[in-house]
Amino acid sequence: MCKNHVYGTIQLEVSRASLSNKKDLAVLESYYAISDERVDLSELTLVHKNGKRLGTVKVHNVKISWDEFGKGEYRK
């Protein structure tokens, strides 16, 4: 069993589909569906672009913020 741990930060930019076409309603809908208070994320599995599993990391803190709105667009 490993006794040492390395701590770091992974920043993710995420999006979700919304039925609303108004920013305020879309943000409110997103907070209701997925917010810090509603999500219990304990592990995150990272996968290489070729599909190979790279490993699992423990999640110590989750901060979810829905602050942008785009009609029908997806950023890469």
Short description:
The chain is α+β, with helices and mostly antiparallel strands.
Shape: elongated
Q: Which stretches are poorly predicted, pLDDT < 50 over at least 5 residues?
A: none
The CA-CA distance between the termini, in Å, is 38 Å
Secondary structure: number of strands: 2
Helix content: 10-25%
Question: What average pLDDT do the residues reach?
Answer: 85
Radius of gyration: 16 Å
Major β-sheet strand ordering: 1-2
Question: Can you characterise this structure?
Answer:
The chain is an alpha+beta fold and 76 residues long. The protein has a domain at 23-58. Helix content is 14%, strand content 14%. The chain has one helix at residues 23-33; strands at residues 43-47, 53-58. Strands 1-2 form a two-stranded antiparallel sheet. Strand 1 (43-47) and strand 2 form a beta hairpin. The protein is elongated, with a radius of gyration of 16 Å.
Spell out the key features of this protein:
single chain; 76 residues; alpha+beta; two-stranded antiparallel ribbon; elongated
Q: How are the secondary structure elements laid out?
A:
Layout: H1 23-33, E1 43-47, E2 53-58
Antiparallel strand pairs: 1-2
